[in-house]
């Protein structure tokens, strides 16, 4: 017997009857004999007696019931059934009571599962996926604890050191010479001695001397010249946000703000999830690391997904990442994201009841870049206008074309231009996305 969950199409009940051995019993009124006891021949009875003492065959069966959600076994029930052939079950009343209890529990499980929506966040490195995840905690939960803020404080210190290391490396690549002043020379000597190769420092020893050296370098003319080229170098998006506020952050009484948390760069490793109420259901949002080494873990999260939010940094159209097959070669960052999206959107795990929504993220940075670097940096054949709307629409169309016609016939692919650091923007866009998820996942089963 199989019951399909009306919401997930994944809740399955299996019932297995394990037959026992047939045994003989002297009469229906005297119970049944063990199959190791062989009844002796009984004396002949009258016609009336034989009606009440005739032998009957009894079987003892075991009923196993399993409830599965995807690959997860959520309930197991074992029952004994003792039946007399040609008659009624010897434990009919007891079995009816147990069956009623089981059915009630199964219904509770079904209601719980069908009122929980699973939303998967996917995307490549540095696309802003984890920033959106943080926004969900701020908007739909109670934000962050005091301990979280302490941890973010040290993460922000690390971001600042990483940003300055990136700026110094970029200065060398751009052949921009440092200021010929004693203050800058001392600051460079101090910083490079400790963090010369600190592309991602994990531990930062904070002290006044470090902050002073970073502040001196940031105010120098050669670093200002590097920042003018920030749209073509490898640099954290939040670099200037934190470096502009270095004096506030370097204070001993520095308290991390909510915007500091949003701006902080937190590479996701492993699988992180949160559960929060939304309208009449619970949303289970899962954030999976976007680094290449993490992408092999994505498949483990593909079961029972109601919506996929695929995040891409549209601002990466003029940036490059090492090629998967040959790290010595470079691949355009946006085209790399397109290949990821193609694999995800056409994956067989995501059927017609899984909404696919594309976030063209970092639209604020894209708006700055597009006036300086044409879209032909990524798409050589692009012949449209150079305005933000025209270029963003073209990128959206290129992503949509990657989805098979069969899938697009079953469900449309929705997309939004987003700025993950803008809480109001994310709140509004996410609300619109959930309308799509509800429509695709719930209206088809008559839940809403």
TrEMBL record:
Keywords: GTP-binding, Magnesium, Metal-binding, Nucleotide-binding, Transducer
SMART domains xref list: G_alpha
GO biological process, one term: adenylate cyclase-modulating G protein-coupled receptor signaling pathway
Binding site for Mg(2+): 130, 268
SUPFAM superfamilies: P-loop containing nucleoside triphosphate hydrolases, Transducin (alpha subunit), insertion domain
One CC-aspect GO term: heterotrimeric G-protein complex
Gene Ontology terms, MF aspect: G protein-coupled receptor binding; G-protein beta/gamma-subunit complex binding; GTP binding; GTPase activity; metal ion binding
Pfam families found in the cross-reference section: G-alpha
Composition bias type Polar residues, residue spans: 29-38
UniProt-annotated binding residues for GTP: 126-131, 237-238, 287-291, 361-364, 420
Cross-referenced InterPro entries: Gprotein_alpha_su, GproteinA_insert, P-loop_NTPase
Segments for region (Disordered): 29-56
Recorded family membership: Belongs to the G-alpha family.
Protein name in UniProt: Uncharacterized protein
Protein species of origin: Caenorhabditis angaria
